[in-house]
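pasting for the record
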Amino acid sequence: MKNKLQAFINRFVAWCKNAVHFFKIGIWHSGKEESKVRQFFYNIVKSFIMAGRRYSEDRLQSKASALTYNTLLAIVPMLAVLFGIARGFGFQNIVKSQLFAFLPGQQKALNQSLTFVDSYLEHAQSGVFVGIGLGLLIWTVMNLLGNIEDIFNQIWRVQKSRSLFRKVTDYLSLFLVLPLLMICSGGISVFLTTTFAETLQIFNPAWGVFLKLLPFVIIVFTFTGIYMFIPNTHVKFLNAFGAGLFAGIAFQLFQLLYISGQLWVSKYNAIYGSFAALPLLLLWLQLSWVICLLGVELAAAGQNIEGYNFEKDIRNISRRCKEFFTVLIAALIVKRFEKGEKPYTKHDISLYYKIPIKLTTDILISLTDANVILEAHSEQEFEPAYVPAMDISKLTIASLLDKIDQVGSEDFNIDHGIMKKHWEKYISIKNAVRNEKYNILLKDI
């Protein structure tokens, strides 16, 4: 009996070790020899692993804290803009009911905020308010949305945010469309519960389940829209929807826990008084942003999963290896230009060589800073392509490495009397070696 138990324990321990090894290493080296179904599930697992791994790398907790602070400052101005537009259409009551339905755990905070909003809008008829207050209101909202976009772009490894003109037009469009979407979602709920209630009585159990799931579906598609619209890059619908589904489920579960926790804390109002609502609101905002940002990580990982396959392998990449990939990428861009074909984007390059998107991005930034390549227009609206920035008949491996070496500052306080001759000797030796061994055109590699 003891021998059987020991054998079972040994097999279980070995199975656990194999499972850990597979998820840490094996799954990242699985290739196209796997079936499509298995590849699909492997990619889902990889996406979650990458999102979890990059949680600390991208410092999502700190980013969520910053957004919590910005959101707290912008709550009243944001609601003022939203209700100002809704009042213009005469739909403020519907928007209000939808907000309470969407955020059932924030009744007190919403009521207090709406009191401030009413006061805010009452003074909107003042000339001083229109000139200064309205400008401050719009700036606060734009600043919040701009910070959200910057953080989303950092997660997506996007270097450039929207232009000021696009920020104004896109963000204002969002606030014009948002009340209409809220009205439509509320109207659909009312329409379904009244018009078809008698007709579908025979399917009452299923109909009841559907109506209960409707708010969840709305939340999922809200997150999906956020993940597609906010980053300044092209996000595929399936990746945004998968991330939206995860964020929607997590947000709903969090809402349930938050509401039950709020009821638990309310028992101690004799101690905390009305102050208990503030830390609870901050906690809700913080964890809501963590869920939202995890969804962004999941969407980015899912869309670029092939470029993340060896992400772990390049954390401690050697200088020689990074130099090798720099030459490869520069040569690919040059050859593409020489053939007169459409230039590659960073995702094209990452997939072509099957190297991590982060490494590709870092190298492209270095090549751009060194004036070896330039950003050019591509067929993808949000993502630039890359072309040579100099005559390719003069671009050798030696000149490329020399330009890369010169990126950055070399103007710092040193004793030129001692260092100057050593510096000049070092540079001459380095250039001589490179010119002798690497005087080969990139297009001829």
